[in-house]
Amino acid sequence: MIKTVFIASTEAYSGKSIISIGLVNMLLGKAQKIGFFKPIISQNLLEKKDDHINTILTHFDLPIAYEDTNAFSWQEAMRQMETESEGEMIDTIIRKFKNLEDKYDFTVVEGTDYQGEGAAFEFEINVQIAKNLRAPVIIVVSGEGKTTAQVVNGALTAIHNFGAREIQVLAIVANKVKQQSIRDVEDLLKQQLSPGILIAVIPEDKTLQNPSVKEVYEKLDGKLLFGKEHLSNQVDHFVTGAMNVPNFLNYLKENVLIVTPGDRGDIIISALQANISTSYPKVAGIVLSAGYEPEEPILRLIEGSETVVPIIAVKTGTFETTNTVGAIRSKITPGNTQKIQLAIDTFNKYINMPELDKRIITLKPSGITPRMFQYQITSWAKSNKKHIVLPEGTDERILKAAARLISQDIVSLTLLGDQEQIAAIINKLDISLDLSKVKIVNPASDVHYDDYVNTLYELRKNKNVNLEMARDMMTDVSYFGTMMVYKGHADGMVSGAVHTTQHTIRPALQFLKTKPGISVVSSVFFMCLPDRVSVFGDCAVNPNPTAEQLAEIAISSAESSIRFGIEPRVAMLSYSSGTSGEGEDVEKVRRATEIVKAKRPDLKIEGPIQYDAAVDLVVGSSKMPGSEVAGRASVLIFPDLNTGNNTYKAVQRETGALAIGPMLQGLNKPVNDLSRGCTVDDVFNTVIITAIQCQDV
User: Fold this and answer.
1) What is the DSSP string of 461-472?
2) pTM, whole model, 2 decimals?
3) Domain 370-511 is in which class?
4) What CATH class does 4-207+339-360 carry?
């Protein structure tokens, strides 16, 4: 059984961190406990933590002590080699690795960074470590600045060298390959390698390779004068501003960093003006050299500007500063969530994950963790891609989530709104959304508008809606989006980022209607707690449900739980457990529980039961001994909206849990409501669960 993978490169800056991050993310979707080990790190152990280890541990919240993730710094490893203590070094690495391996379902091991001298010597060390750990390898080779032949020969040589030591090669990844060479590299490798080796070719990507202004700022150790909020800007080019303004403007390119003496107010102001002009490319930032800072009138002018890029003052001269900037290599650091997500997206897009899955995933863990849940729902959504309409097409959060959804090829999207306005917002906020891959519809001018108006009129004329009213209503994005779903022009709808819950779901209640046998529309949240995923219902729709409605909510929530891979153990919550309490509210919960037992005897259900008895095994065993649900509840049904809404928000805020939803239950076709305080992640996840609901319609 494979429990370890060694990720090896053959040179510096190969981009193996993309594979490490992507693999850890993939494994967390399959197993509960993932370990990470980097035997030899580049940094001196006493000076600072290894950036990549720190990124893995913090982003994925792995419960591993930093000192357990590595054995030696490169300097220490070299001293071991110089004193002919290589055997002792390997023994220490094996011992530390085995201590880690025993605690985890799977361990990802990463090779050295090639920051020292002698690539062949360093490669040999990686081979020795992989062999002694008995770990199969994923080899990463760089295509940066190389011809097709050089990339292929480098890959074949690396595979041969590992194979000659009887080390299994799981996959070869050619990274940073020129776009025009991708097909040739892939074809040549397929011709010369056995089918047992997985092949992946990843094109060069400036967004991953080039530094952010923050990385430049930290490397230059300068003084930040303006633009702290834009330090994440990417630097794709840099130019020296040491000429007259008209000539200087001709040298501007997209995402350019400008290096200019601090007393060149003309360059500074023209650069800021160019950045807000639609006629010039975006400016990433400005570095003021030679120890000069702008004079007071220039500073005042900058302070009053609407958009200010990062402006950094340094003491070094222009030539020295430019050389330093040109030598900066980007790293994926703990706080750079944008690059971490891009690394994950890149891995998911270019690695044949089902094939890799077959080679390395051999365990069947019990239970489901939040990351396993998120990985699972994303995979489900991709397996049968659906079309979702997002009525609030001009909202920043909607557009950022849309960019992620499209880049990962999870769903097809329609945005409602004016195309020029949406394009302007994307450009202004630098959102990487490819508008050629989404459909943008302006309701009032859409070809389906008249048909939608007539359909709404026919559906609602018995409710005193005349044709003119229907025409006005159909200009509302909620009505238009819902009608798209009704007509089959979209599979589902997600809205509510800027609209109320009632505004979002009213059209669905009016003409999408409920499923046969369902009398009440309800909602659930998937609460991604640190060690499990629970289903909370109803926390968003029904203020004070009757016993019959509460029973229906419980059954719908249990079915949603099953659909999303969570075994339903239903707790009907109240302020008392079992037969200990009395009162109208308790009796309502007791009646609802009996109704569920009568209608669905297959469900494990307990009620009335208190929250602590439902989720804490010790308390549950004490208050309700012998119960299949007490202490193990996965579906928690609240007696009213006041209790449910407050509880989910309290749990979310106090524990840091991710709350995915609300997901509406009971409608004929999926429509889901967002909170007006939603984040980009909320939008992203809600679209995914909506897409999965669409698969069942």
Assistant:
1) GGGT--HHHHHH
2) 0.70
3) alpha beta
4) alpha beta
